[in-house]
Amino acid sequence: MQIPIENIYFLLAYAWDKLKEAEFVNVSADNKTNVLQLLTYTFLNGSKRLCKKGLIRDYISQNDLYNGIKGKFDLTNTLKSNALGKGAAICHFDELSGNILPNQLIKSTLVQIQKIKIIPSLNKEISQVLIHFSEVDYIPVSSHLFSKARSGYNDPFYAFLLNICELLHENLQIESKSGKYLFRDFTKDERQMAKLFEAFVRNFYKIELRDFIVKREDLHWQLKSSLENVKFLPKMQTDITLINGNRKVIIDTKFYKETLQKNFNTQKIHSENLFQLFTYLKNQNNPTCEGILLYPTVEHSLSLSYYYNSHQIRIETINLNQPWQKIHEDLLSMILK
């Protein structure tokens, strides 16, 4: 399945719920030959915009030798260091600084891009950006740091850049023999693309269908038993639920290299997908709730419709290898037709 670079950019922007931030960066995908180039240009241009805007700063605790007295005076350690004779003291104080985790992750990613020469022609531009991070420490990047970096700061543009940092970190691997970095193209990873596709569709409808409530929904099993037994039932959560008045649509997204499965040379809908959606419809209280299984188009487009009592069940595909405006139109018409 080929997805144009421009469409990958839109998928990421919607999935991260950062469409406005992506538009601010204004990266043309026309001259980018692969996903890594796209991410690199986007990250660098976003970092430039960040520098013009100014790095966020926060108060960080300092425990240091200070000429004079500042904050809380540490008498014991000051006496041990013989600092008083020099007119100094060990003090505990808070200082406004840009040397905070979000900035450290952005700087460290810029340094990494420069070191491994993903796009050598950009090295000079990266050096110019790094000047603005002179007070920020370089740190080893690890996966657990990203959620920590986002938790204390509510800045959408920072979140957008940190998402790119994380995606680069997850997919850049060191080749053990040569020591060179290799980029694992996440668009060829079915598991990663399944997560991206689901988040993209959910946030697309959340942004574009303002008259609908769009969310993930926990459904309750319509089974009778004791409370002791109920706790053993598995959690049942939809990928996407759309609600507008009495109308309710449950969408289950799937991302496969093959949309249909073969059974004795006959193409069939993936049975487990249909069973899952059927279970969702049977275990909720809206008697006319619609269900949609949504796949990306691989070889052929599908639009199938079935009924169970008053529930309509549809099998739909969306062609991601077409101009973005047509993807936009097709996703809207799927719900509004």
From TrEMBL:
* Lineage: superkingdom: Bacteria
- Give GO BP annotations, semicolon-separated: DNA restriction-modification system
InterPro entries linked to this entry: McrC, McrC_bac
Q: Could you tell me which PANTHER family the record lists for this protein? A: PROTEIN MCRC, TYPE IV METHYL-DIRECTED RESTRICTION ENZYME ECOKMCRBC
Name this protein carries in UniProt: 5-methylcytosine-specific restriction enzyme subunit McrC
Q: What is the lineage of its organism?
A: Bacteria, Pseudomonadati, Bacteroidota, Cytophagia, Cytophagales
